[in-house]
Specification:
With 305 residues, the chain is mostly helical. It is 80% helix and 0% strand. Helix 1 packs parallel to helix 10 and helix 5 crosses helix 7. It starts with a helix and ends with a helix. The mean pLDDT is 87.
């Protein structure tokens, strides 16, 4: 296996570990406060990276107004709404189920492209969508065995509510990606685009905190005061997901095959299972593995279609 392929798998592993690091601060602070603090840290880090690289002016300030508007809109839908729904979902049903639900953003992008952009639905893409949906169903409904007692496998509140939240997060990600697609295809830097998307989302998060009712999905203020441990875990989650994960993905995209990179980087739903096994000391159920593998196979079929 070549370095680009290893980098793509490394990106998926970073995202898996980041999800696990997110659980404690997400429940400690509350999803809305956690996402707000986490994304603020991420945006600051991305802006610092652009400054250190000496590309702040060339890659960020040179973006035309219509590109900034599209990226900002993408961040509001994909991050402000999408991430908040994802972490509310994760708080209710744990990282494993939330991750597999979030994987449905791939088939959602396919169908949004067909209905909104007039794209053609190929047989391979259709099969991929079926595989992702089937894998998600198996992992959610049959993905836990009786001996698993860790709190991350518990379900808080109605399962259907959490499923709808996870699907809403995936839909937000899918719509956000479609909005940003023209800008990315024009050659915009992934780091600068992520910084703009994140900044727009962070602005809405802090505005929502000040006004208190823009996105009434829970308590805006932190449930408990931020301490050193929670700040470190929140920072690690953001750095792993957005800095290291993004950096490895960019390297893989630049130096490797585009389709293979997309497939390997999508394995985060599967890689999360051994990470959870290591941390919780509980072996994931058979259908958790089957569901995750079907989801990866489905994403691969979509990418190769």
């Amino acid at each position: 296996m070549q370095l680009p392929e290893l980098a793509a798998i490394g990106a998926a592993l970073c995202w898996s570990v980041a999800s696990v690091f997110s659980m404690e601060p997400n429940r400690y602070l509350g999803p809305l406060a956690f996402v707000r603090i986490r994304m603020t840290i991420v945006v600051v880090i991305l802006l610092l990276v652009l400054v250190v690289q000496g590309t702040f002016n060339d890659q960020l300030l040179s973006l035309p107004p219509h590109s900034l508007a599209l990226l900002g809109s993408s961040g509001v839908v994909g991050i402000w709404i999408g991430d908040i729904l994802l972490f509310i979902c994760m708080d209710r049903i744990g990282p494993r189920r939330a991750a597999i639900l979030f994987a449905t953003n791939a088939p959602m992008q396919v169908f949004l492209g067909v209905f909104l952009l007039g794209e053609t639905l190929s047989l391979g893409a259709f099969i991929g969508c079926v595989l992702v949906v089937s894998g998600t169903y198996l992992a959610i409904v049959f993905g836990k065995h009786a001996s698993q007692i860790h709190q991350w496998e518990d379900i808080k509140g109605p399962l259907i509510t959490a499923v709808l939240l996870g699907l809403g997060a995936a839909l937000g990600q899918a719509i956000g990606s479609l909005i940003a697609k023209p800008v990315m295809e024009s050659g915009a830097s992934a780091i600068s685009a992520t910084a703009v998307r994140g900044a727009a989302a962070v602005a809405m998060m802090w505005l929502s905190l000040l006004l208190g009712s823009i996105l009434p999905l829970g308590q805006q203020k932190a449930l408990q005061p931020l301490n050193t441990r929670i700040f470190v875990l929140t920072t690690l989650s953001g750095v792993l997901a957005m800095a290291m994960g993004m950096g490895l993905l960019l390297y893989a995209l630049k130096n490797g095959d585009l389709g293979m990179t997309a497939i390997l980087s999508s394995t985060s739903t599967t890689l999360m299972l051994p990470v959870l096994w290591l941390i919780t000391k509980e072996r994931p159920a058979l259908f958790a593995w089957v569901g995750a593998l079907l989801a990866v196979a489905g994403i691969a079929s979509i990418q190769l279609a």
